Amino acid sequence: MMNAVRVDPSNTEQARAWDGDEGAHWAANADRYDRSVADYQVRFLEASSIDPSDRVLDIGCGTGQTTLDAARIARSGSALGVDLSGEMIEIAKGRAAGEGLGNATFEQADAQIHPFEAGGFDVAISRTGAMFFGDPVAAFTNIGRALRPAGRLALLTWQPVPDNEWIREIATAMAAGRELPTPPPEAPGPFSFSDPGRVRSILTDAGFREVSLEPMTGRMYFGPAAEEAYHFLVGVAGWMLKGLDADGRSRALGALRASIDAHESADGVTYNSATWLISAKRAP
Predict the structure, then answer these.
(1) pTM for the complete prediction?
(2) What average pLDDT does the segment 201-210 reach?
(3) CATH value of 2-163+181-220+273-282 in 2.60.40.1180, 3.40.109.10, 6.20.20.10, 3.40.50.150
């Protein structure tokens, strides 16, 4: 639990979620979450440009797949993964131990304020984990401080909701005809880095240069068959049912199942998705 880890006040709610029920769901479904974004993994690692001797910092590492992949590439260097979730960090440590990857380490930490070694890393990476900071400028200033001068940054973030069929269809189904509350675009959440102008402003203010965003598309995988994907997505999006009566819940879950059935194929249940591959360098 987070009570032993210092968290910036602006990240208190995120810590409560990620070191609570949300993080527990990710930990219990680690392989499924990794598989869901597998279409992006190779290109993301290529863009990270990790060299064999690099020291890599993985922000919001979750259960550790990206950290472990980085450690395999940086075989004479190292990879440190940090995350708010204690349960996910324990899964990551177990994976590293199981593979005998001694150059991969993990720490439960709030990357916005964690005292990383100044200039201690050559590259910082984050696969869909960089969008949840209460104060993103402060967070990326701290991450930039941890990089050597001209150190590299590589992030994978979501493009806007209308470009992502998976969240659009899931939210429409679970709304059951209601207007679900939409958080402000600057609020911490999966789509807070979807606006390229905001991303450039945040990273520039945090001391990064040569900020670029490359659009990518891929398939989000949610399970080998409709029944399994349905139970998984109810766990992911069940919070959207809040406030519905029994009839509303029934309609919402029926609509979700119909959408899942329509997206089932020989390749499993998949939806279209769109991301940004963000690259930048710390100012020299």
Answers:
(1) 0.95
(2) 98
(3) 3.40.50.150
